[in-house]
Amino acid sequence: MTSIEATTTVAQAAIDDSQATPRVLRDRMLARVEERLFALLAQERAYWTEQNPDALELVDCVGTMVASGGKRLRPAFCIAAYLAAGGDPASQVAVDTAAALELMHTSALLHDDVLDESELRRNEPTAHVRHATLHRERDWHGDARHYGQSVAMLAGNLAIVYAERLLATCPPAARSVWGELSTELMVGQFLDVRAAARFQPDIPLARWIALFKSGRYTVYRPLSVGAMLAGGSPELLVPFEEYGLALGEAFQLRDDLLDAFGDTDVTGKPARLDFKQHKMTLLMSFALQDEPEVKALVGDDLPHTDPDELHALLIKTGIKDRVEAVIEERLKVANDAVSAALPDAWASELHAMARAAAYRVK
């Protein structure tokens, strides 16, 4: 390509960007995020093929999760905020940072499946189950279950290492938000485990865990990272926070409902896993605190409560509808926050993203 042709191509791209809808601009950048993820993993495979091919099983453990069909919500919110705040669609730093968010999510999923002893993720055996099976098939020494869990935890750690590598050129303001995101995710995970062990209905704590374990790192912090990458417009940070926190809570509450009432064939995860793991979700906090019938059925032994009986009782007592009402209210708060702060086109795009996240629709 000649220099004249290259200049013409860049100019044409700029015209295309200026005429594109918010959804098209966002999706173009997300396509580059996807390319960046798989280029990084391909480079790692090539490197370890030369260094020590045995290491490929760990690299591929990360790659399999990345390629398994996630919704890419965190990169999408990051890129949307970046563009809505006036960021350059050609930015490589924004693409790398959004890809790092997906790798952080990959890490969280690998670790979550071990902590929850889940056997399915996206309708496939989880990493720790898959590697325990390999251990048994190879007739190796030691405990197969422990081996599988060890591989999954190490793969989760490796995904964080890859994320950090992608953040090499991330500016300090956005890097600071990344640090907050990482800390909140870990603390939220711990409090979730602690609340399950303690097993006392606590609605404020359940809402707090829903925010920090999932909500903040799914919506609010990715939005903040994107805004910071674009220059951190002060007038957008507050509405992004209001939108992100409200939608993040709605997103986690939808997860609670899908676990309790969803279909494994649709969700790709075991049904009613929160019951088995003693999770003190907002749904269960409502039920145990306010519904004597539920309290009498469950007592202090949720894992051994008949899941079908509990499922029917939660519907009968209206708990499902109550959580749905909270989701709808949170969605309205989120939409109102950006309606007054963004141009109509970007506000409409964030409204559509909010509904998709809260109701798991496209």
TrEMBL record:
InterPro entries: Isoprenoid_synthase_dom_sf, Polyprenyl_synt, Polyprenyl_synt_CS. One of its GO terms (molecular function) is dimethylallyltranstransferase activity. Keywords: Magnesium, Metal-binding, Transferase. Gene3D superfamilies: Farnesyl Diphosphate Synthase. Its EC number is 2.5.1.1, 2.5.1.10, 2.5.1.29. Pfam families: polyprenyl_synt (PF00348). It is an enzyme of class 2 (transferase). The keyword Transferase applies. GO terms for biological process: isoprenoid biosynthetic process. This is Geranylgeranyl diphosphate synthase type I. It comes from Streptomyces zagrosensis.
